[in-house]
Amino acid sequence: MFEVFCRDLGLAECDFAASAPSLRKLEYKMLEHARDEHPQLIAGITEEQHEALMTQIAEAAHETAVH
Ligand SMILES: [Zn+2]
After folding, report:
1. Domain extents for the chain?
2. How many A from CA of 3 to the centre of ligand 1?
């Protein structure tokens, strides 16, 4: 599993952590959370900024042990 914290994306006051079996799904989950909880983070971002956010999520992701 992969895991990423909202904090890793610069939102210090948010405790949300997303986990998913693949980076692709992790990015999707994180985006979904951002859309619901931090709409200002992704409102009106360009394709380029979207790519940068995906990269940031992938870089911040930790691989966790599979149980
Ligand atoms: Zn959050």
Report:
1. 2-63
2. 13
